[in-house]
Amino acid sequence: MTSKIFMSYSRRELGFVDDLVSKLEGENYDVWLDYRALIPGSPWNVQIDKGLTEADTVLLVVSKAAIASEYVALEWRHFLETKKRVILLIFEAVDLPKELEQYEWVDFRGSYKAGLAELFSQLKQPIQEEHPVPETGFKAPWIVWVAILVSALVALLSLSEYWTLFIPWILFPLPYRIYKRNFDFTHVQTALLALPVASVLSLVVYEDPTLDVVVWSGIMYGLILLFILRTPAMQRWGKPEAIIPKYINPHDPKISNPTPIPFYVDYAVQDRVIAEDLIATLKKYGHPQVNTIQEAKAVFALISRFKSDTEADSEKQMLFPILIQTNNDISKALSRIQWIDFRPGVRGLDVIAQLLPNPKELLKALGMRPVSSQTVYSPLITAIYYFILFLTVVNIGSSISYLLTPPIDLIPSDYVELGANMLLFGGLAYLMVKGLTSRKGLFSSLWQILLGVVVMWGLTYWQKVLDGRIVSEIVDAGIDINTIPYNFVNVAEYIYLIGIAVTGFVFFRNMRDAKRWFPAKK
Q: How many Å from the N-terminal Cα to the C-terminal Cα in the chain?
């Protein structure tokens, strides 16, 4: 009879594992899952060894990534050496090491519900397998095939919005990427939400009745696809970048007077605002701040582009790496310790302060799921990013329409102005996005971003004036303007005004995130 389970898997199957563990815990099984069980502040290798020792059964999620992982191999070999029970959960059929071919298995490639029922039955009573474990063949839940079919329709329909550039760029290869499980959910969701806006603009601009069916079909199937991609089955199917970032509301431990722990916050000066907020919260709950890192019992190391290491000793101190910004050069010492993720926004400071004496409960209380392979920013930074992106593709797309297939013989100055406007807008957008996301260089401060937004308005107005002049040239040429599907007057302007309204709303709801994200002055 199984009592304690150790989950051995590759993070590429995070969505499947996260849901499965929830189902197991619902049946009252005690499950050791790394990102739910690891204690922040302590090296993870010792904790994993402890989890392996205490468990009596390992559930090995079989996939290409898992079988290729040296860390997963160490885990299942430990169980073989200690003669503990192993059950293979077949997520993908792959060639197995000879040592694993003899063990029990459950096929999860088709019906998830049937796989769960069989797993629960086997956990209660071991069985003797009558058939060899499947090592070849591709199977997928029926919803995956539906998603591929609908995405293929959306991909074709998205071509009508070629002028946006990024919508067909993201949606056209989507059927194959769903099959391979490696699409970026955040990007796809943005493209699907932008598709109705772009489609309505196309109807207004081109005034072509033949586009009605294409446009409305794109809107309908795009929304259907978005619903499908958000279903539990598709969330189990995708790799981490293909599933919804999941952040449960932090649990409030309701501890007003925790045991005082001397602490030190190790940070780069650019991350000073976040450090000050953390220090203030820790002090509010009675934790004393020490003057040097060596005096501290608990050290919080804020990791960003500006800092990737710390002098703290993880063998003698509780060390809490806090990820503010993705940093691929993080030191080996920090990479071996479970981190706290502040990339989606600073949250749970009170929880950290309350549970500092009991870090074992910290990750559960913060409600975080690892998203290291995803592009993650706070809601405000995400809103600014996509505002810049969508405005840019509308502006450039409208200019490209004139340059590639002009409705009349444009005068040379029109070509020069269209090209100059397009290059200036594209260059400005590139620099703004680079500064916003990297937190370095030009446009890495809020006032610089605001200045860039003002310049974008100037370029948008320039395009409006230029567009109006071209329309006048069309009229002067004796051509009925209603027969020309190129009238982009006010399109970028409308997008700008809508984007300002939406981004402004997000800004005023998340003003503190702006202060925390943009680097403090030295």
A: 60
Cα–Cα distance between 308 and 302 in angstroms, integer?
Answer: 8
Full pLDDT tens readout for the chain, 522 residues: 667 899 999 988 989 998 999 999 999 999 998 877 777 666 677 788 888 888 889 999 999 999 998 889 988 888 888 888 899 999 999 999 988 888 899 999 989 999 999 999 999 888 777 778 888 888 999 999 999 999 999 999 898 887 777 889 999 999 999 999 989 888 898 889 888 877 776 776 665 666 677 778 888 999 999 999 999 999 999 988 888 876 655 677 889 899 999 999 999 999 999 999 999 999 999 999 999 999 999 999 999 999 999 998 888 888 888 989 888 788 777 777 778 888 888 888 999 999 999 887 777 777 666 655 566 788 899 899 989 988 887 787 777 777 766 666 767 887 888 889 989 999 999 999 999 999 999 999 999 999 999 999 999 888 888 877 877 777 777 766 665 555 555 567 878 888 899 899 999 988 888 999 999 986
In a domain, 371, yes or no: no
Same domain, 391 and 499: yes
Please, are residues 398 and 491 in contact by the beta-carbon 8 Å criterion?
Answer: yes
Query: Do 25 and 152 fall into the same domain?
Result: no
CATH number of the domain that 301 lies in? Answer: 3.40.50.10140
β-sheet bridge partners, residue 106: 89
133, part of any domain: no
Domain count, the chain: 4
**CA–CA separation, 239 vs 103, rounded Å?**
26
Q: Are residues 212 and 175 in the same domain?
A: yes
Domain limits at 394? 379-517
Query: Does one domain contain both 16 and 113?
Result: yes
Q: Is residue 58 part of a domain?
A: yes
- Pairing between β-strand 30-32 and β-strand 4-8 as defined by DSSP bridges: parallel
Which residue intervals of 55-207 are DSSP H helices?
A: 64-68, 70-81, 112-124, 142-158, 166-171, 174-180, 185-206
pTM given for the model: 0.79
Element (H, E) at 104: strand 104-107
